[in-house]
Design goal:
About 10% of the residues have low confidence. This protein is of the alpha/beta class and about 260 residues long. Strand 5, helix 7 and strand 6 form a beta-alpha-beta unit. It has one domain: Vaccinia Virus protein VP39 (Rossmann fold), CATH 3.40.50. The protein starts with a strand and ends with a strand. The chain has an eight-stranded mixed sheet with strand order 1-7-8-6-5-2-3-4, sandwiched between helices. About 35% of the residues lie in helices and about 25% in strands.
């Protein structure tokens, strides 16, 4: 088991939304995976008109990100995680190609553009990808719009091997665990032999609100998919990733996995 570290963070928006939907999603009959994936695709594709989706997708200037320091802080934090991990590995933090799954409004890539030549953003919302491109610039950013039912379709847009893979505040919104596993396997196929990866999930803490959901995606999207720490390390292992260490944030049940391709 890789080493663990704890870090706390205040994310009051999550609690506000969860409290509103708690009574709605208490106990429901499970829905089919195909229905859940369709619902998830519809929800996140509604970013052009839905202010909640815009905020949850980290659009700059929307919702809590009207405070620009909040938006910048997300990217700066993950930039620090990446550069610290590179130093841990004894590497220089400089990359030819970065792939972020679910870049949202671009807060991570806005910072990572300083240490990368090309930035790929994979998303199911064309509007959100346009917003991200506006923050990064078309010369550096390559949007990869995918069919929600076919995560492997991102490879139609990524024309080179990638030496840094990042995904944060995304997997917890996936409609099912198998989707996560499929995504990780497909991404691994485009990574360089020594690629670095920063992958974040929500981990279960024994509370009902964090358990894996199986119905009513649009009400429970906030904490829909969760993994145990050992469970996810095993998934990464099976998908050809080596986990070097894990950083935990108990306040939000966030787990950050610092990995390389095996």
């Amino acid at each position: 088991m890789p080493q663990l570290a704890n870090e706390t963070r205040n994310f009051s928006l999550f609690d506000r939304i969860a409290s509103k939907s708690k009574s709605i999603v208490a106990e429901r009959v499970p829905q089919s995976v195909s229905q859940l994936r369709q619902d998830a695709g519809e929800f996140w594709s509604d970013s052009r008109a839905n202010s909640l989706v815009q905020e949850m997708a980290h659009w700059r200037g929307k919702g809590r990100f009207e405070d620009d320091s909040e938006w910048l802080a997300i990217g700066k934090k993950h930039f620090r995680f990446v550069t610290d991990f590179a130093r841990y590995l004894g590497r220089r933090p400089q990359f030819d190609a970065v792939l972020e799954w679910g870049p949202g409004g671009g807060s991570n890539l806005f910072q990572l553009k300083n240490i990368a030549t090309k930035l790929y953003g994979v998303d199911i919302s064309p509007t959100t990808l346009k917003i991200c491109e506006g923050e990064i610039g078309p010369a550096t950013f390559v949007p990869a719009l995918i069919d929600p039912a076919r995560p492997e379709s991102f490879k139609d847009h990524v024309k080179q091997n990638v030496d840094l893979f990042v995904t944060t505040a995304v997997i917890q919104h996936f409609p099912d665990k198998a989707y996560t596993e499929a995504m990780l396997c497909e991404v691994n196929n485009v990574l360089t032999a020594d690629a670095m990866c920063l992958i974040q999930t929500r981990y279960g803490d024994g509370q009902k609100r964090i358990r894996q959901k199986k119905s009513l995606y649009k009400h429970a999207f906030l904490r829909f998919t969760t993994f145990g720490i050992e469970e996810f390390v095993n998934i990464l292992e099976n998908a050809n990733y080596r986990t070097h260490y894990v950083k935990l944030e108990p306040r939000t049940c966030y787990a950050y996995y610092f990995c390389t391709k095996k």
